């Protein structure tokens, strides 16, 4: 059980860090004018999304499911936590769709939007950690 919990925490930390950092790569791509820097930003985005964010998200969710099967689905806080995790998954998909839109030239958002967007995962992560540590209900 401790192994599953350790995996869950480790991959959740990696996924959370990537969710916080990824929008700044979008800012970099939107603001850069040079072709070489744009290629670099696109490469960094794809690498982070495909090789760090998505695998860590899948492993964090998988380890979380493993924990639910081991410990049971008890506590009202767990229902709320799972709803917040679902919102994190939606944000993850949103980041991927924005990356694709920018790459195809269909992006309509300014860099200011991408600078504000990291507030969403920051609030979700804070709420999840608070729920897990306090188990208020």
Short characterization:
With 137 residues, this protein is mostly helical.
The count of β-strands is 0
Q: Class by helix and strand content? A: mainly alpha
Q: First CA to last CA: what distance?
A: 23 Å
How many helices? The count is 5
User: How confident is the prediction overall: mean pLDDT?
Assistant: 91
Pattern of helices and strands: HHHHH
**How many independent structural domains?**
1
Catalytic activity: protoporphyrinogen IX + 3 A = protoporphyrin IX + 3 AH2
EC number: 1.3.99.-
Function: Catalyzes the oxidation of protoporphyrinogen IX to protoporphyrin IX.
InterPro entries: HemJ-like (IPR005265)
Topology, element by element:
Elements: H1 2-31, H2 35-71, H3 76-104, H4 111-116, H5 119-134
Helix pairs in contact: 1-2, 1-3, 2-3, 3-5
Function: Catalyzes the oxidation of protoporphyrinogen IX to protoporphyrin IX.
Cofactor: heme b
Keywords: Cell membrane, Heme, Iron, Membrane, Metal-binding, Oxidoreductase, Transmembrane, Transmembrane helix
Structural overview:
There is one protein chain. This protein has 137 residues and is mainly α. It has one domain. The chain is 86% helix and 0% strand. It is built from five helices and no strands. Helix 1 runs parallel beside helix 3. The two termini are 23 Å apart. The relative contact order is 0.16.
Features:
137 residues; mainly alpha; 5 helices; 0% strand; Protoporphyrinogen IX oxidase; membrane; oxidoreductase
């Amino acid at each position: 059980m401790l192994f599953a919990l350790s995996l869950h925490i480790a991959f959740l930390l990696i996924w959370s860090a990537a969710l916080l950092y990824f929008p700044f790569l979008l800012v970099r791509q939107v603001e850069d004018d040079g072709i070489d820097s744009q290629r670099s930003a696109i490469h960094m985005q794809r690498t982070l999304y495909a090789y760090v964010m998505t695998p860590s998200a899948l492993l964090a969710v998988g380890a979380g499911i493993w924990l639910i099967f081991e410990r049971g689905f008890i506590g009202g806080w767990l229902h709320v936590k799972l709803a917040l995790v679902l919102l994190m998954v939606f944000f993850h998909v949103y980041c991927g769709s924005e990356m694709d839109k920018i790459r195809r030239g269909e992006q309509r958002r300014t860099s200011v939007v991408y600078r504000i967007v990291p507030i969403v995962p920051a609030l979700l992560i804070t709420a999840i950690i608070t729920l897990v540590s306090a188990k208020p209900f």
